[in-house]
Amino acid sequence: MGDVASRLRQIVRGSGQAPRPGSGPARELTYELDSPGWRTPATLEQVCESLGGTAFDTSAGSCLRICRRYESDRWYGNLRIGDCEVTDLSALDTPGSPIFLDIETTGLSGGAGTVAFLVGCGYFDLGAFQIHQFLLPSYAAERALLAAVADSVAGAGCLVTYNGKTFDLPVMETRWLFHRIPPPLAEKAHLDMLHTARRLWRDREAPQGCNLSVLERDLFGVRRTGDVPGFEIPSRYFRFLRTGDPAPLETVLEHNRLDLVSLAAVTARAAAIAHGGSPACRDGRERLAAGRLLERGGRFAAAEQCYRDATADADAEVRTDGWCRLAIRLRRERRHAEAADAWRQVLASASSGSIGTLARQALAVHMEHRTGDFDGARTLALEALLELENELPRRREDLLYRLARLDRKITRRLERTGGVQVDLLDQPTDEGCVLF
Amino acid sequence: MALPARLADKDGGLRDVLARLEAARGPEAAGREPIVTAVERMPAIEARYAPFPEQTDARLRAALSVRGAAQLYTHQAEALAHTFAGRNVVVITPTASGKTLCYNVPVLDAVLRDPSARALYLFPTKALAQDQLAELQALAERLAEQDSRGAGAPGSDNVQIGVFTYDGDTPQDARRAIRGRAHVVLSNPDMLHSGILPHHPRWAKLFENLRFVVIDELHAYRGVFGSHLGNIIRRLHRVCRHYGSDPVFICSSATIANPRELAERLTGEPFELVDRSGAPRGEKFFVFVNPPVVNAQLGIRRSYLAQTRQVALEFLKRGLQIIVFAQSRLATEILTTYLKDAYEGAPGASDVIRGYRGGYLPLRRREIEKGLRAGEVRAVVSTNALELGIDIGALDVAVLAGYPGTIAATWQRAGRAGRRSSRSAAVLVASSAPLDQFIIRHPQYFFGASPEHGLVNPDNLHILLDHVKCAAFELPFREGEKFGELDADLQAVLTVLGEEGFLHFADGQWNWTSESYPADAVSLRSISSDNFVVVDQTDHERVIGETDFTSGPATLHEKAIYIVEGQLFQVERFDFEGRKAYVRAVECDYYTDAITYTRVTILDTFEKVSGIVSGDGPAHPETVPDTLWSPRSHGEVHVVSRVVGFKKIKFYTNENVGSGELDLPEQQMHTTAYWLTIPAEVMGALPYGPDDRRDGVVGLAWAMKNIAQLLLMCDRHDIGLSIDGGNLDRAIRTGGAAEKNLDINGEPNVFIYDNYPGGIGFSQPLYAMHDALLARTRDLIAGCPCESGCPSCVGPEGNTGPLAKAVASQILDMLVARAHTSREI
Q: What is the SS3 string spanning B749-777?
């Protein structure tokens, strides 16, 4: 029944439904030849010339290297490249001088069949940002590309990526392992800026996941024009492989370079905040985020300063948050009296909502255990309970438990002091909880 | 009734029941069929021992002897000799004959000698891997303990053997550690296919040092599943070559007719066969029970479940530990209830009778398994979930409610009873299904026949294509490379995949040029990954099941009854385009059976015997009778099927209580088929009217399909049946109604086709078994005590017509008799 190839074509095209016999082949040639250059791979020289690169020789053969230099006085959005220079990431807990890494791949799934066809490396050189991009002219050149990348990163103190922890580095590691070469990136210190950026800016700039292109727009006012969408990148590379025409890769190279520059800029901004603390922040919100980042890094004094400065912010919400973060910070340092004052500030500005409840609960704990003001604690706990009317049962239970204990304590104190027991809680709870 | 103490005289009890059953066997009294059709005694077998091969690591021998294996059975020694010599081996031995030792010893020995050595075990299910994990870990711990006690000797290696399961349940964060530390990875074909091979660079340590691949329960890899595994092993070979390893394969299997052939077909490697067990066995009885006929005219028998209950209780009340195998989850629950009811009263007693099936939580299953081993659980009612090698110890009696469908599975289940020294018994209770009735009335066929063949077809183009994609994702194909034995076809596949953009040829190799992860699109348990999901909207919408694409319309059409764990659901809306069926829980006492209209067109005939009827080789012209008697062929066909309606069938009585019409899209496929052509001369020689002749062909086809299933060792759904453009189901349903398409006056063809696109390898063997197929079909029909057709032979009389049985018998007589005549000439 027909030749194998036409049956195979039917199966590949996926319907799984065979055509009726006798109805003739539905279509014979549905694929389009991409261009007249089909199956005539371009020579390395042609590709080099077209993309403005050079053949890069390694012990494992040749790949393609494209070098671009962004001089320090060049503008990038509202920044100059020179402002992005960052050579010391110790404030972000990463040692050594950084090399920025970003790869473009033939797919997102990972596994042996996902290839990094473009590896971009960026570093600062006397204020200028130097980018080396290594491109696979064909799959056969992969060992050369890997050797080139290994060389490039060998001298760097650390790697900086954006989402590299889950994507770029595992993909690269797999490539080395595929060729049975020990992966050279494993021992390098690595800073995945995605996580830092999330801590600093997720709340506002990029609520949907801290996309690099959103950050560069909001932080630096950069707007890319004619940028290639990420999902198009693999198919452009495949087109290049089939036709030998490197033109579709132009925008991919540019996309990769802009990602690297933005990554450097974002890193510089984060490092400045981490290093400079509150004074380096643009506004109160950034101060709050910076405080959290500094706390994580164990720099408590700088964090406290961020929160204190936030409490003086023009924005009421920022002020409240600032008091709240400050209170938590102080409590962790066992500065309980100061913490209680901060909680009172929270209550003064935000007496309702979850933040108010938090403050009431914290104050109730403080009064019950440290100042012995049971009545005050009880009032706050009751108020919190009312706030939590529609909240999670577990949180309510905690409060009910506290109230029961407070009432026992108050009763005992009353008994000890010869007072009269009164009906302390005449409000019935909907859970029928017996409080005595 | 309370259960008697367990320590009663068990042997006496067993003999007691057997004597009663033997008495029921008797001669045919007053024309009545016997209830017990066979009591086969299998004598006790003495153990045959052999020493460990010299080179076995002393530490391993010590650890094994502590665990009760101080010496080997002969088959174990034979298997070890092969593996130590680097030869692939397939071991077929009965249940509980120590087959795991055949692979654990070479593997652990290799690891003890060289800690970098690795092994990969494949089990058909996750539960089996868990079961083996416990045993291997115990052995590994024993080795480590011995080592630490004997430590102090400087330079002695620390024996730390890592044994891990790696499957869908393995937590993400544990996976990295397992990749690095596991000496032995216990997994399944699905995980190897989608989780390990596509990520082979991360498993470099395993593949560089892979010394053994163990495939347990080899017989489970038949049909589609086996055809997938064959391709996965081809991929495994490629990856191993990439890392420079060449593992030895050790396979173990239940008894099948062609273990070596199956192993060789699945792995593409030569194998040594070890099939003579040296394990001891106590005396064993196998009893066949046929429930009595209660309505001779309609061929209705007493419910086999009730009969099973009665048999099981006989053993139970004499203090014997039993396992009851049921055919479905529903039957399992029913029988569990029956047995529990019988022992109501004694507090806590119900816990000694347990059900066991897929769908129970793993913890509960482990608890039941433990109870069985400890003897606390006295009776377990199970689906085939306990048929495979889960360790439950050896029980006294196995009762099989219904014929499991294959000889191999029957022996496997019967093997669950049988201790090494004491007496045991197995009882098969037949249902009224044709296969059951054939087997129960032909015990000599069962006890004499070789078991079935395990058939696979890794070269099925649909399956092959999927795996070539996966293979190309894993490693580029080099120019001229082979994939298994494939050569020319592989180049064609690569070329087409290149045209379609999945691959690109450059620098002498085919590279993967697609963003997709091809393994995700392939499901090993069926050919097409397209499926229908079943959405229960009784309370809130939730998915409760899925069905593969081909069987979707027949099982999920509107008003169909869909059954999950004994709960009945009715399909309210069937969304063919959206591939969803919306169901709601119902209470009803019937289930539905779809009526499918099927038309088969011959596309290409591969082989054909049109001259002589039987015997081997081509016919001599002078021996050919003047007419052609039973021409048969096999080849490629085009099948169009459409679900046109359904019947409502009452539980227990199987009465037809209603029907409905349906209008669903056609499904088409190319597949392979065997077909019998009934010559015009035979049709013409039948002294019956056209309607009766048609009924006869329909009845013949019905019986043939059932026998084909028996011969092919396949599932009911694996093969389809059609008569020359005819509409079989409808013909059966509508009885005398005119069937225009059925060209009964010409030469009708009876097609038995592979019910999978591309075919799965049943047609050619069936063609080769043509003689047996006809002869056994004749035995089935002739041996059936019904008067004029029943579900056990040519189909129920009310559906096939009053003379179907007579006509079918006569057609067969002519075909088979002529066959004998011609041979004698």
A: EEEEEECCCCCCCCHHHHHHCHHHHHHHH
